[in-house]
Write a structure and sequence with these properties.
Protein name: TonB-dependent receptor plug domain-containing protein
Radius of gyration: 15 Å
Low-confidence stretches: none
Shape: elongated
Strand order of the largest sheet: 4-3-7-8
Structural class: mainly beta
Pfam family, one: CarbopepD_reg_2
CATH architecture: Sandwich
Helix content: under 10%
Distance between the termini: 49 Å
InterPro entries: CarboxyPept-like_regulatory
CATH topology: Immunoglobulin-like
Order of helices and strands: EEEEEEEEEEEE
Length: about 110
Amino acid sequence: MRLACAPIVGNVFEANGEPLRGATLLIKGTHQVYVTDSEGKFQFTDPVYEGQILTIGAAGYVSREIPLADCSLPRLVLAKEPTARIKQTGKRAGQVVRLNNRSTNLK
């Protein structure tokens, strides 16, 4: 059943409460892919249906799947991968510099 709530607007956060920019949101079974902006915000412009699965992921973070049941979304928080090291400052802030104890060769 189609949910009559488009557009759906939301935010994705890191575990520490900071907005997560560049997170990817995909509605399974479709080609609807969205990316969060610099404030962690996204907006679904296409219709969504009850029972669809929303997959949220970002480099260096553990992915989540959320079933869509109504027009409200829970607080979307992604936890860091235990072995990931993400650059916090500078020109490359937000980029993964170490994952699974291997360097990503970013300096």
